[in-house]
Amino acid sequence: MTQAHLVVKHLSAGYGGFLVLRELTLEAAPGLTVILGPNGAGKTTLLKALAGLIPRQGEVLLDGAALPLGDASGTVKRGLALVAEGRQLFPQMSVAENLELGGWLIPKAERARRLEQAFSDFPKLRERAKQLAGTMSGGEQQMVAVARAMMSGPRLLMLDEPSLGLAPKMVDELLAIARRIADAGTTVLMVEQNVRKALAVADRGYVLERGALVAQGPAPELARSDIIRQAYLGQA
Ligand code: ATP
């Protein structure tokens, strides 16, 4: 199967009468694309709009076909999975149960196969299969959230600040996981605050400020650009 390609044209979205994103045009080609930008720029809003969780205008095309709006299971069936900020695990359920919930749309036998795959992709989670998700560390919980999203067999995985609040070593581990998922054939679109580390693992990036794109390009070029060096890396 070819790898998924997301194309977004003239996307506008917001809350009530308040427009956050204005006419964004961007794409997530196979590989790992990162969205950078300051707090409140609209990064989370972008992922929510792409997932069809908030009203939007404009085109959102996955491999040329429009993704649905306001239809969570339809969106998953079309191959999109979102790991939202805050992970949204079921804390009183075990790791294995949380993972199984990520496969709620697939037949039982296939779900068991994917669970086995998740445990081989995330060996740390196999050791913790029976542990209640709420008792795990922040990094481990983030890993469960990513593994749960992968249970639906997505073609496009969207990650909202996977490294938020994690210790540096765990940040590296989560970003390496995102890279590995992209290398294994799932297109990844990731929002990150950790600019330097995110650009080190990404193929391409966009910078979003006040709801508009202000820079874009291959990750190494973006890392060298004035806008990134001055605004985000403190190297004027
Ligand atoms: P952060 O890094 O702080 O999460 P962000 O770039 O993800 O920032 P968003 O969370 O998308 O930014 O927020 C963009 C704007 O939309 C902000 O002005 C925010 O206050 C507003 N906003 C976010 N969620 C809602 C909501 N549910 N209702 C109304 N306004 C919202």
TrEMBL record:
GO BP field: L-amino acid transport
Gene Ontology MF terms in the entry: ATP binding; ATP hydrolysis activity; branched-chain amino acid transmembrane transporter activity
Stretches assigned to the ABC transporter domain: 6-235
Keywords, comma-separated and alphabetical: Amino-acid transport, ATP-binding, Cell membrane, Membrane, Nucleotide-binding, Transport
PROSITE patterns in the record: ABC_TRANSPORTER_1, ABC_TRANSPORTER_2
Family from the record: Belongs to the ABC transporter superfamily.
Protein name: ABC transporter ATP-binding protein
Organism: Variovorax terrae
